[in-house]
């Protein structure tokens, strides 16, 4: 199965679909651009819509915690819920994920015309594995931390809803402007080699690509699962990732990062279910992805 940009059937173009992106930030704007190219009408909802000017995405100022604003959400074919918490604490995560999603679900459940499918962007933080275990969509998601637990609560709310929904668990997102690991390496820092702490990543452009791909499949009438794990094809120890970056940046690591044991996570994400849908990663590993980020961000040393 492949994503058909024109959604052609019998030589005729299908009726234009409308997609609402709730939390239309970095990933949402990249997704919106892909959907516009595919013939969608795209509405982007966020608190400040100035960034959407000239993007082709229709701006919709929205405070998710305003019940009147939620009641005024338009009827659409697809909803993509991709909000981010304002800060890393339990109250902010509860508001942005389970509480926010439940409010949107209630809004659309009460209508005569409901979205064809609602996509919830979740996270692989729902897993609690620490010994490098392989995880997939069937692995119990029992994170001991509040972030993963609240993400899982939101997923469960979607699965119990009368609306048709799919949750997509992204691993560590990197890309333009998401270059924290590069900057750590430039500071001479590196993750310890032992015990190995596996790292799972996905480029921002693949986040948008995966969502556009799944929407395209649904438009074309293909059956979707209710859960996908979206991570690239190279889960590797974080030490190896940072050592590779150091080699590209021509930096000699001088400091080993010692994370508290209670905060360490180590798992290997299996993306087989996603690959089986026909999705092809633009950046199948951190090597291709970080090479692009370093080049476009001006991080690479000048050739001698």
What would you say this structure looks like, in words?
- This protein has 304 residues and is an alpha/beta fold.
- The chain is 34% helix and 20% strand.
- It is built from nine helices and 17 strands.
- The strands form six sheets. It has a seven-stranded parallel beta sheet, sandwiched between helices. Strands 1-2 form a two-stranded antiparallel sheet. A two-stranded parallel sheet has the order 8-17.
- Strand 3 (18-22), helix 1 and strand 4 (41-46) form a beta-alpha-beta unit.
- Helix 3 packs parallel to helix 4 and helix 5 packs across helix 7.
Q: Order the strands across the largest sheet as they lie in space.
A: 5-4-3-6-7-9-14
Q: What is the percent of helical residues?
A: 25-40%
Main sheet properties:
7 strands, parallel
Q: Given the helix and strand composition, which structural class is it? A: alpha/beta
Overall pLDDT metric = 92
End-to-end C-alpha gap = 46 Å
List keywords for this structure.
globular; two-stranded antiparallel ribbon; single chain; 304 residues; alpha/beta
Set down the secondary structure blueprint.
Elements: E1 8-9, E2 12-13, E3 18-22, H1 26-37, E4 41-46, E5 58-61, H2 67-71, E6 78-81, H3 90-109, E7 117-123, E8 133-135, H4 146-160, E9 165-170, E10 172-174, H5 180-186, E11 189-190, E12 198-199, E13 201-203, H6 204-219, E14 227-230, E15 236-237, H7 238-249, E16 255-256, E17 267-269, H8 272-276, H9 286-297
Parallel strand pairs: 3-4, 3-6, 4-5, 6-7, 7-9, 8-17, 9-14, 10-13, 11-16
Antiparallel strand pairs: 1-2, 12-15
